């Protein structure tokens, strides 16, 4: 249940008020298996449990968890081309002729149509939740493309869902560069052990990536004195979670520390109680982090839908 990456979007109180009936809206867009001639399908799957009876929304307090699923047929081009080559050779041997371009195209389409129903199916899942009280859409991915695809699925299910990436008043890159250079971080933050520094002008293309490195070391600060800026910075928040924060405010490599995981019940009553406890803890911890990010970077919630 704990997320590993966070891509964030923000929505207004008016949008939050219109999220009643979320379960019913997602149910109309439930994931269905790929048909014999379909390349891929997408839709919503239960975030907890399996089967048609499992709910598509896992609600704890004002946070509503969901999961976007997809199925994709795996049919490598090499497999199609090998079968096509075999058929072309067969025609050459049996009919004594070469196949022209149009016929070759039709043959390839026929091969593809015959092999597709027998192709392997690969499934994927992307978890997320809606915090109606604070107006956050949180997606467990660092991929902007995957996040946009999940947002599109929500918009299709809800009819309309105006949500935007965070719009910081303070430049995250400039602020994180100042934190790293001066060592003067907000009281609840400490430096982690990795960062990515780049030449902001991009003239030289210089990129420095540090991992398992003391970030207050002189060699790191020397790069800053030479004009590089922080594009990603490893941080520890309140000794409860560690992560790498990007200039795009995407949170990567999120890890909850012992102070958090020890709060989970040792012997939950059942799987549902365990899922509730983990989801409640996740959302409460991230609510605290997002509140501080609002203060650090000036992240205003949209006032109108």
From TrEMBL:
Name of the protein: Recombination-associated protein RdgC
GO cellular component: bacterial nucleoid; cytoplasm
Organism: Aerosticca soli
Gene: rdgC
Record localization: Cytoplasm, Nucleoid
Keyword set, alphabetical order: Cytoplasm, DNA recombination
Family as reported in the entry's similarity comment: Belongs to the RdgC family.
Biological classification of the source: Bacteria, Pseudomonadati, Pseudomonadota, Gammaproteobacteria, Lysobacterales
Main location: cytoplasm
Function: May be involved in recombination.
Keyword RNA-binding: no
GO biological process per UniProt: DNA recombination; regulation of DNA recombination
Domain of life: Bacteria
MF GO annotations: double-stranded DNA binding
HAMAP family assigned: RdgC
Entry annotated with the keyword Hydrolase: no
């Amino acid at each position: 249940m704990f997320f590993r990456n966070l891509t964030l979007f923000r929505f207004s109180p008016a949008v939050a008020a219109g999220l009643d009936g979320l379960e019913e809206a997602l149910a109309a867009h439930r994931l269905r298996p790929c048909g014999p001639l379909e390349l891929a399908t997408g839709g919503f799957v239960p975030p907890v449990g399996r089967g048609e009876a499992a709910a598509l929304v896992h609600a704890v307090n004002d946070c509503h968890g969901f999961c976007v699923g997809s199925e994709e047929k795996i049919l490598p081009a090499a497999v199609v081309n090998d079968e096509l080559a075999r058929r072309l050779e067969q025609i050459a041997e049996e009919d004594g002729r070469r196949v022209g371009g149009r016929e070759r195209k039709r043959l390839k389409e026929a091969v593809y149509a015959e092999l597709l129903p027998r192709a392997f199916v690969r499934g994927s899942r992307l978890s997320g939740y809606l915090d109606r009280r604070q107006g956050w859409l949180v997606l467990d991915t660092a991929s902007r493309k995957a996040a946009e695809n999940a947002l599109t699925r929500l918009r299709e299910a809800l009819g309309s869902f105006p949500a935007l990436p965070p719009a910081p008043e303070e430049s995250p890159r400039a602020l994180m560069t100042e934190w790293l250079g001066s060592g003067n971080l907000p009281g609840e933050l400490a430096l982690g052990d990795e960062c990515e520094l780049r030449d902001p002008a991009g003239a030289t293309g210089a990129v420095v990536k540090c991992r398992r490195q003391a970030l207050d070391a002189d060699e790191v600060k020397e790069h800053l004195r030479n004009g590089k800026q922080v594009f990603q910075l490893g941080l520890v928040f309140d000794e409860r979670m560690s992560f790498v924060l990007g200039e795009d405010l995407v949170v990567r490599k999120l890890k909850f520390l012992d102070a958090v995981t020890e709060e989970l019940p040792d012997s939950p009553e059942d799987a549902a109680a365990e899922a509730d406890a983990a989801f409640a803890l996740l959302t409460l911890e991230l609510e605290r982090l997002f509140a501080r990010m609002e203060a650090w970077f000036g992240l205003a919630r949209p006032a109108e839908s």
